[in-house]
Amino acid sequence: MTRSKPIFPELFDMLKRVLGEHVDQNAKDFLDLMAEDAVMEFPFARPGRPKKVSGHADLTAYLEPLADILVIESFTDPVVHWTLNPKIVILEFSITGHSRSNGQPYNQSYVEIITLEGGKIKNIRDYWNPLLTQSLSA
């Protein structure tokens, strides 16, 4: 599946910088950091939204529309917690931005548990407040 544009380039830049040698530094966008069979999990997803998305094609289909409705303006410097397992890292950060359709502000804090494998992200468990996304669409 060909992506029409980069998905959240700001997030890609932050992850590539923070994860450093643990990920492919030749990656060109967010999904290039992900393994082909990568999984993103959303334990607090709103009803009707997926709690789990697997593989590049499904991740693209899930993330591209989000990138079309949200403008990311800034990130806080992430707090990075390397665990005793060198393949698992926990990131804490916040994003500020706004809705493309109605200008509503978006101020969200995240905790992500990331599992790495072979220079790629194998799994992201994404903890955030899904209620804050309700104001993004018109």
Give me the CATH fold name.
Nuclear Transport Factor 2, Chain: A
Q: Structural class of the helices, strands and pairings?
A: alpha+beta
CATH arch. level architecture: Roll
**Rg (C-alpha, Å):** 14 Å
CATH class term? Alpha Beta
Mean pLDDT: 90
From the N-terminal CA to the C-terminal CA, the straight-line distance is 28 Å
Helix content: 10-25%
Low-pLDDT runs of 5+ residues are none
Which overall shape is indicated by the principal axes computed on the Cα atoms?
globular
Helical stretch tally: 2
Q: Secondary-structure element sequence?
A: HEEHEEEEE
Topology, number of strands: 7
Which percent range describes the beta-strand content? 35-45%
What does this structure look like?
This protein is of the alpha+beta class. The protein has one domain: Nuclear Transport Factor 2, Chain: A. It has helices at residues 9-19, 56-69, and strands spanning 34-41, 52-54, 70-75, 79-82, 88-99, 105-117, 120-127. Strands 1, 2, 3, 4, 5, 6 and 7 form a seven-stranded mixed β-sheet that branches. The radius of gyration is 14 Å and the shape is globular. The two termini are 28 Å apart. The mean pLDDT is 90.
Give a brief rundown of this model.
By secondary structure, the protein is of the alpha+beta class.
Please specify the SSE layout and strand pairing.
Layout: H1 9-19, E1 34-41, E2 52-54, H2 56-69, E3 70-75, E4 79-82, E5 88-99, E6 105-117, E7 120-127
Parallel strand pairs: 1-7
Antiparallel strand pairs: 1-2, 3-5, 4-5, 5-6, 6-7
